[in-house]
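User: I'm preparing a small set of examples for a lab meeting where we compare how different chains pack in three dimensions. I only have the primary sequence for this one, and I'd like the structure in token form so I can line it up with the others. Please keep the answer compact; I'll paste it straight into my notes.
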Amino acid sequence: MRADSPFRSAAATDTGMLRERNEDRYFIDAARGVFLVVDGVGGHAAGELAAQTAVEAIRETFAAHERRVPKSGDAARISACATERVRAAIAAANNRIFHLAAATPRAKAWRAS
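Assistant: Understood. Below is the structure token output for the 113-residue chain.
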């Protein structure tokens, strides 16, 4: 589903004053109205991997569900569909991170929000 918007978007991240690496990740698909920021929690094992995994899983889930989005019709139905897509995408990211962390000894304490 494409969203016509008068807004322009951009993203930037910063390591801050305490960290050597930036573990934050973002994804922008302005044409579809998707703006995602994932905070890889600094100081935890594999925070950057958890954040990147979340972005990839959410992006893939949105792409897989896009063909199910109603093109027109009842606004409540379209809104409910969008809500379910967001929930499914977050659940997919959570599940993927959980399974990767369980299978990767270095990543037992993966953290992303």
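A couple of notes for your slides: DSSP finds two helices and two strands in the chain. The longest helix spans residues 75-103.

User: Perfect, thanks.
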